[in-house]
Prior knowledge:
It comes from Novosphingobium barchaimii LL02. Helices cover 59% and strands 11% of the residues.
Amino acid sequence: MENTDQLMRNRAKAIRLIGIANELLAMARELEIGESSSAIPESLYVGGDAREGGKPAASQDHPIWVELARQAYEDRRRRTKIFRSEELFGEPAWDILLDLFIAAKERRRVSVTSSCIGSAVPSTTALRWIAILEKQGLLVREADPGDARRVYVKLSARGYAAMLEYFASASRSVVRLDDATKDIQLPR
């Protein structure tokens, strides 16, 4: 019984630490791309707008969201495998956004070529979607300073905040359940 209690306490501590680490990564990402939270559009504020004391989605990070993104990405690959058809479930823009969100959480750079491969569509189609996502302000391209032939893509601050908002709203019941377990005081 005591082992179970200790495991639950350790799990709660680990979840809190992961949440703090993800929040720090989000803040570092903002600093890295040179945009402060004041540059986040008011439409991306959770719980009201900036004047009402709402917090930007980037500060509402939770460690489960990257896991949900990974699961969504893997689920999309699994459907193609099970139904044995790549034509049935194409949504390259979403695949690109999922891949870039996961990469941002892992602090990993993604080349345009890798993003094309990750979208599971022909390169020309993927490049068209990358251009559309860039035009929408959801991702940015960066030249590799060490190799002029390579270009990286990453979520913009707006794209990152939108993904956080999506997973916050999509996973609110899971996060509430997780937060409820943190509030339970375990006997010592």
